[in-house]
Amino acid sequence: MNASTAAPDRDAPAASRRAQEARTAWTVYASLVTLTLLSVFSAAAGQAAGRVLVVTWALALAGAKAALIGLFFMHLLREDARILFLVGAAAAAVVVLAGGLFPDLALRLGAGG
Amino acid sequence: VTTAGATATAETAAGRVGIWAFLVSEIMLFGAFLAGYVMTRWGSATCRLGAPAWPRDGHEAGLALATLNTLALITSSFTMVRACLAAAGGRDAEFRRWLGGTIGLGAVFLAVKAVEYALKISHGLSPNGAAVLANPGLGVFVSYYFAVTGLHGVHVLAGLIWLAALAQASRRRGAAALAGAVEYAGLYWHFVDVVWVFLFPLFYLV
């Protein structure tokens, strides 16, 4: 096999993978736009549902959008273990540190705050 | 795989670890601001978390601008993905088109943010504005708003400078030679988008 025919053969799987990624990007983009519009309209419609529900719903939609961007656009879905460990450690640290605020939050809620 | 190819692959992998380590430090930075913000608003009598804290004056216009900005940033993330794919495939013209779109949308984001700041200030909603002085409890919310969205805006501006440098470099070296660098810039740009994804509901919807 000469060089001129070998190069396209080697590149074909990569080109196919990139085409698949482009199609996935369109789907993820459409999902992100839909979730954004849903968060705007549901926030306006749901103010009577109570503050905990409104905040939880808004943050859940934001979390879903962040997950889509992280998993597909930032490729965490197929990232190697070192990077997953880095991101996991940071996410765990944020959860633990923010979680440390909850006793104060519970105290304020208990006092009617 | 050639020795040069293996070296380039190893450099790209090491670079990804490096850029992710940087992004992790950014997660901690924005995480600290947002945790403080949530706690402050939860305990506030003036701007309790659970309903938009903005006074009615100008809130709808501000929300419309912020929604437009959210869509601009999300679209720029999509165009950035396409730019990365074009660079990896060595398609120069396509790469410059998608990267130009990303830069344009980032510039739109900053321009809309400037208009929104002007709108807020015209309604007395600045740390020293009339509406805030008349309602001191609102000052904490307004200060958080300018501090955190300003910090995010600086990150967008830094990203735009990075992307513009890549666009310039691609004219000399071609997109394929920059595929690794474009991937790093893309990761940073998507991170900036993720931060805004959380700022949008926290500052405009709840």
User: Which chains make the largest contact?
Assistant: A-B, 49 and 47 residues
Number of contiguous helices of chain B? 6
Query: Approximately what portion of the residues of chain B adopt beta-strand conformation?
Result: under 5%
Q: Strand tally of chain A, please?
A: 0
Order of SSEs of chain A, N→C?
A: HHHH
Shape of chain A: flat
Question: What is the topology?
Answer:
The complex is a heterodimer of chains A (113) and B (206).
Chain A: H1 3-45, H2 51-73, H3 81-99, H4 102-110
Chain B: H1 3-42, H2 59-88, H3 92-122, H4 130-134, H5 138-173, H6 179-205
Helix pairs in contact in B: 1-5, 1-6, 2-3, 2-6, 3-5, 5-6
Report on this model:
- The complex is a heterodimer of chains A (113) and B (206).
- With 113 residues, chain A is mainly α.
- Chain A is 83% helix and 0% strand.
- In chain A, helix 1 packs antiparallel against helix 2.
- Chain B starts with a helix and ends with a helix.
- Chain B is elongated, with a radius of gyration of 20 Å.
- Chain B has helices at residues 3-42, 59-88, 92-122, 130-134, 138-173, 179-205.
- The mean pLDDT of chain B is 92.
- In chain B, helix 2 (59-88) runs antiparallel to helix 6 (179-205).
- With 206 residues, chain B is mainly alpha-helical.
